[in-house]
Amino acid sequence: MNYNCAAGSLSGFVQMLACNYLPHGYWFYVTGHIPDAKQPLFVDQKLIEKYGIDRSRSSRARRKVAGLANIHYLRHRQFFVLLATHGHHEFFEEEGRIRDVRRLPIRYGGYSICVQQGGYLRKESPDAPAEKDPQLRVRVQIDRAYFRELRGYFSTAARCLSTEQLTQEFKTIGFEPYAPVRQQLLNLLRIVNWERKLRGMGPLDPDVIRYRRKIVRPFECENSKAA
Predict the structure, then answer these.
(1) How many CB atoms lie within 10 A of CB 96?
(2) Is 4 in contact with 44 (CB distance < 8 Å)?
(3) d(Cα 30, Cα 13) in Å, to the nearest integer?
(4) What is the 3-state secondary structure (H, E, C) of 121-180?
(5) What pLDDT, on the 0 to 100 scale, is given for residue 59?
(6) What residue ranges of the chain have pLDDT lower than 50?
(7) Which of 23, 30, 69, 197 could form a disulfide with 89 if both were Cys (CB 3.0 to 4.6 A apart)?
(8) What's 97's DSSP letter?
């Protein structure tokens, strides 16, 4: 098999975690950074061989039934993450400081990615009682420290930049609008519009925020184009 592990973009890296691995129980992880002096491809091969990661879907299913853990490996540039499911595996003996994504999020590229209990289910009617979501859900958001920087910058920029300039600033925010990210960006927009209202300036239109996430090919480079 040819095991794909090198994400071609940050968006692809996050997409693989949020949509392919974490929803299927790959909750135990370690992260690492490959030194610039080392070739990432050699590290990829070494880890894939060491933990027998290059397995078919049927092989992974059989291991799960037998109570054995499965492992995935994902890298973007020099940063990598090894992820494991519940079960027996030498990964849990070989690796130190194994974290649980339900308790400590994976932080990379300004994102914070975790698995949490869902909030409330969508009501079928306005009069229906609120019902908690019983499922664990993947949550992708802008990391708190990074978001604080964004909030400070936009709070200041709202007082001195024009509508066109602020619109462009929002357009250049590169985070994919997963639901929690959208909420953070809407909060940012509210802060900007409040600052502008205090100074008698018109509000920014909600369209400055991108609401739809781009689905990417995770292992294709951002700058590659179809022939």
Answers:
(1) 6
(2) no
(3) 15
(4) CCCCCCCCCCCECCCEEEEEEECHHHHHHHHHHHHHHCCCCCHHHHHHHHHCCCCCCCHH
(5) 96
(6) 225-227
(7) 69
(8) S
